[in-house]
Amino acid sequence: MKKVLVAMSGGVDSSVAAMLLKEQGYEVVGATMRLWHANDDKKRPGGCCSIEDISDAKRVCNVLNIAHYVFNFESEFKKFVVDNFVKEYFCARTPNPCIICNQKMKFEIFLQRAIAMGFDYIATGHYANVEHAQHLRLKKSTDKTKDQSYALFRLDERKLERILFPLGELSKKEVRQIAQNANLPVAQKPDSQEICFIDNNDYGTFLKNYDPLTKIEKGDILDKNGKKLGVHKGLAYYTVGQRSGLGLSTPEPRYVLSINSENNTLVVGKKEDTYSKVCFVKDVSWVNAKPENNFIADVKIRYLHTAARAQVKSKENNCAQIIFCEPQMAITPGQSAVFYYGEYVLGGGVIVKNNENM
């Protein structure tokens, strides 16, 4: 009997994943990662892996009659996810901490712990599929409204051999119905929507308090020609493409075009100014073998972006240039560009400003 360690967040998805694997005949054990949060005492109602979430995961494991572990990964999470998040924001980039958490915490540290404990696989509640053909391939989930393959592009064949995604063929509605039918205590638990380690999604206050030696200072808001239009409250409060919260009185709405940490300025413009056809990415990785140097793919530049057709040109040092067939709005440094071929994830990388740091 194959052994599976299920990463259980205390939510409905990972709970149903554990139940389905047990029904399929695996020897299943649940494990919850205790992660760092801005509130050190962890006495908070929401967010991922709070005391409440750990308790919920344990309750589900009791219902399923499986063992449950708690792994204290607070220091690792702070080092790899939180510190990276802070560094990126102060470099005028907008990171996606969920991608880093998946890459470092779930599919490196958690996976390594599972292998050391003698498990054959780990499993999560992600909505994605692994196709077992000539090569293992990462594939979109059946429910495209919940597909999470974008956040998993760092997985390669070696890791996919050890990972199970039991929910890949299901919809969220079906998952909740399965949980309801099985009387799982988290069947109607709401999904977590915000950054798990920040209260009330208040990035600015978090960044200001996280490192008191780093100041968030006001600066100029400029138009494309360098004319001063107003004053921003600190670069950490803004992202490329943002419209609200600029505090400007202009005849037409203005959008953030670029964030410049070197001179502490925001450059804003009209909506049409936010569109561009070219971007660069670094730290590119591939699920399978690297495609030819120049290829056509559908590219997503953020989680909720509709993938757009583009030419991908490989560069030196795991970098690439992306040339979209049609201009795309708010291509944001720090976010990830993920390459798709139909239903399959080819790979991806991190968007950089023009070709900086390539």
How are the secondary structure elements laid out?
Elements: E1 3-7, H1 12-23, E2 27-34, H2 51-64, E3 68-72, H3 74-90, H4 97-116, E4 121-123, E5 128-132, E6 136-140, H5 157-160, E7 163-164, H6 172-181, H7 203-210, E8 219-222, E9 228-232, E10 255-260, E11 265-269, E12 275-286, E13 294-300, E14 308-315, E15 319-329, E16 336-341, E17 344-352
Parallel strand pairs: 1-2, 1-4, 2-3, 4-7, 8-11
Antiparallel strand pairs: 5-6, 8-9, 10-11, 12-15, 12-17, 13-14, 13-16, 14-15, 16-17
Written account of the structure:
This protein is α/β, with parallel strands linked by helices. It has three domains: 198 residues, HUPs (Rossmann fold, 3-Layer(aba) Sandwich), CATH 3.40.50.620; 53 residues, SH3 type barrels (Roll); 79 residues, Translation factors (Elongation Factor Tu (Ef-tu), domain 3), CATH 2.40.30.10. Helices cover 24% and strands 30% of the residues. It has a six-stranded antiparallel beta barrel. Strand 13 and strand 14 form a beta hairpin. Helix 1 runs parallel beside helix 2, helix 1 crosses helix 6 and helix 3 runs antiparallel to helix 4. The longest helix is centred in the first third of the chain and has 20 residues. The chain is globular, with a radius of gyration of 21 Å.
